[in-house]
Write a structure and sequence with these properties.
The protein has 400 residues and is mostly beta strands. It folds into two domains: 43-158, Immunoglobulin-like (Sandwich), CATH 2.60.40; 160-400, no CATH class. The protein is 7% helix and 38% strand. The chain has one helix and 25 strands. The protein has one helix at residues 2-28, and strands spanning 43-54, 58-65, 69-76, 82-91, 97-107, 112-117, 124-125, 129-139, 146-158, 161-165, 171-174, 179-186, 199-206, 211-215, 235-237, 240-242, 249-252, 269-273, 280-282, 288-289, 302-303, 363-368, 373-375, 382-384, 391-398. The chain is elongated. The model is unreliable at 6-39, 320-324 and 339-351 (pLDDT under 50).
């Protein structure tokens, strides 16, 4: 009798436990008919559906999808057979993502070919955005019953951007993945009395683990020339003050330090943004205004005893001297004259004028002089010239 009572209690406990587990599964997991749980993530495929079928094509089994894959089992009776699926991918995150590559995980029949429509490598999926694209499946042979399983994986990476501010030293960047990158640079401009720094941009194809070296130009606040080539001013000269020139900002494939060390190694320089020329402030007949840096030719200074801007082949001429009298040189602006002049610097430094930028070793190179409208550092607005320290932004564009 006691054993019978014990058996009844055990049975009741088992039934009760199973009921609790079953209830928990149904209330928490809500498993649908295809027995997959769609786990939320920042970016994932959220729908896959058949939208067109011609030439006798049909699904052998229902299609399916997971976070980053689509799976289709189809039959294509001939080369006239076509099946088209529509895929939706949703970015629920706060950051943008980039489609970098399509991987073929399974394609069980070589006679079946697939094509993506409205999705290509490098496409950006903005935050809180859904994108639809199509998979077109065709057969390459006639009068043959082709059936197969096709599983495709889609790689999305978070939109990548790196920024570099002035440090007074060489900085390095390790390329995280092979692909095309956009380089944006702003040259240094004196904070007072001088010309603004220029802007340079361009694209470059880089390999994974490749090293780039970055030097951000200084925007001087006194008579000492800015780091990376700014010419020196002369400080207080009676009733006016001569400021130093702004330093260039450059990116190179080797580490030789500041820009002037590359005079015989120009092929190692990817891109340069020119610094602005130094100028005077105060009152009197010795006033001069620093020329803006940037463009392929730096701008001339202005006012009394101004200097000329640098070009792609020569430094600018000093304000109060001759072309051979301490003119700017490669990567170094001339220093101010003892009595009147100003100074500057960059790719080639300018004597009172701005330096010249360099974009020969990038794709689609663009230069903007410091007296013109250019992108701001954050890319959300614009500004006229760069005053103060330089800046660098590197952005991943697409995978090669």
């Amino acid at each position: 009798m006691e054993n019978r009572k014990l058996l009844i209690v055990v049975v009741l406990l088992v039934v009760l436990c199973n009921s609790i587990v079953y209830s928990a599964l149904n209330s928490e997991m809500l498993i649908n008919g295809d027995a997959y749980v769609r786990v939320k993530s920042d970016i994932r495929i959220t729908d896959l559906k058949l939208v067109d079928q011609t030439g006798g094509a049909y699904e052998t089994y229902n299609s399916d999808y997971s976070k980053n894959t689509t799976s289709m089992q189809i039959t294509l009776p001939s080369s006239e057979s076509v099946m088209i699926y529509e895929v939706t991918v949703t970015n629920n995150g706060s950051n943008d993502y980039i489609f970098t590559e399509l991987l073929e995980e399974v394609c069980s029949n070589d006679n079946i070919k697939y094509e993506l429509i409205n999705l290509k490598e490098g496409d950006i999926l903005n935050s809180n955005y859904s994108k639809t694209f199509q998979i077109k499946l065709t057969s390459t042979v006639s009068n043959t019953m082709n059936f197969g399983i096709i599983v495709l994986k889609y790689n999305f990476i978070e939109s990548m951007e790196w920024t570099f501010s002035y440090t007074g030293d060489v900085q390095s960047f390790v390329v995280p993945t092979s692909g095309n990158y956009k380089l944006e640079l702003w040259g240094g401009g004196p904070s007072l009395g001088g010309g603004a720094g220029g802007y340079s941009s361009g694209n470059v194809n880089l390999s994974s683990e490749q090293l780039l070296y970055i030097v951000v130009g200084e925007g001087p606040i006194n008579s000492t020339g800015g780091y990376n080539g700014g010419g020196n001013g002369n400080g207080n000269l009676g009733n006016f003050y001569v400021t130093g020139g702004g330093g260039a900002t450059h990116i190179s494939t080797t580490n030789r330090g500041i820009l002037k060390n590359y005079e015989n190694f120009k092929d190692e320089i990817l891109i340069v943004a020119a610094g602005g020329g130094g100028g005077t402030r105060g009152s009197g007949n010795g006033l001069a205004y620093g020329g803006a840096g940037g463009g392929l030719v730096g701008l001339n200074g202005g006012g009394h005893h101004y200097g000329s801007g640098a070009t792609q082949t020569a430094g600018g001429v000093k304000a109060y001297g001759s072309a051979t009298d301490n003119a700017g040189s490669f990567g170094k602006g001339s220093d101010a004259d003892p009595l009147y002049s100003v100074n500057y610097t960059r790719y080639y430094g300018g004597g009172g004028g701005g330096g010249s930028s360099f974009v020969d070793n990038v794709i689609n190179g663009v230069t903007i002089a410091g007296d013109s409208t250019m992108p701001s550092h954050d890319g959300l607005s614009t500004m006229v010239g760069n005053s103060g320290h330089g800046y660098v932004k590197i952005s991943f564009v697409y995978k090669n």
